[in-house]
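Re: [ENG-882] Designed sequences occasionally contain unexpected residues at chain ends

Forwarding the minimal case from QA. Structure tokens:
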């Protein structure tokens, strides 16, 4: 039995809720070049996009969906358009690619090895070797290209087509991002020399 003076305390009033502070979301990438791309004439925007990937269907899809609210949306659209390329679209895009070359100051033996590797690849698959090299130091690019060609020469044509399409998608995405980032909005949108 409880002593009459001992009372069970009344429940405490609910605490005033503290405002929940959420970490601030980083601002999405917005560049003057994106605004410029969004408002450029269709022909000029298409020509710019074609410098990133030589597929007319890919370029027209990206240009048709303007305006993009931010660079992330533009790059997502580029990825989606890349995944939807038909075999003919991929062939068209691959014809616009050029083999990786070395600076003229590289040793003659390196030029010979790289030319021979590219020739073997092109004879096997009928198009230039494409590889995404972002993330590698430029000094490593020749070694990465040679290693990539040597490892991918063992692919069957269908497997290599899938690999080349993915490498091309990654290249086109990076090129498009750099093109928009490089544009200040003060120069006309159009193919880069």
């Amino acid at each position: 039995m409880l002593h009459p003076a001992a009372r069970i305390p009344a429940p405490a009033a609910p605490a005033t809720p503290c405002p929940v502070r959420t970490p601030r979301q980083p601002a999405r990438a917005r560049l003057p070049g994106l605004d410029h791309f969004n408002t450029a004439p269709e022909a000029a925007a298409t020509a710019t996009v074609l410098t990133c990937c030589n597929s007319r269907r890919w370029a027209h899809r990206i240009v048709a969906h303007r305006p993009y609210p931010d660079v992330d949306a533009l790059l997502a659209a580029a990825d989606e358009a890349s995944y939807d390329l038909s075999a003919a679209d991929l062939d068209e895009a691959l014809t616009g690619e050029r083999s990786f070359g070395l600076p003229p100051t590289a040793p003659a033996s390196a030029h010979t090895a790289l030319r021979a590797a590219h020739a073997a690849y092109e004879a096997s698959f009928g198009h230039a070797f494409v590889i995404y090299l972002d993330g590698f130091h430029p000094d490593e690019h020749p070694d990465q290209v040679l290693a990539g060609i040597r490892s991918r020469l063992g692919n069957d044509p269908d497997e290599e087509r899938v690999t080349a399409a993915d490498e091309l998608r990654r290249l086109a995405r990076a090129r498009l991002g750099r093109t928009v980032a490089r544009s200040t909005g003060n120069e006309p949108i159009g193919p880069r020399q």
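QA comment: On inspection the terminal residues look reasonable. Helices lie at 32-39, 42-50, 56-64, 71-83, 87-95, 108-125, 141-152, 157-182. Proposing we downgrade this to a documentation issue.
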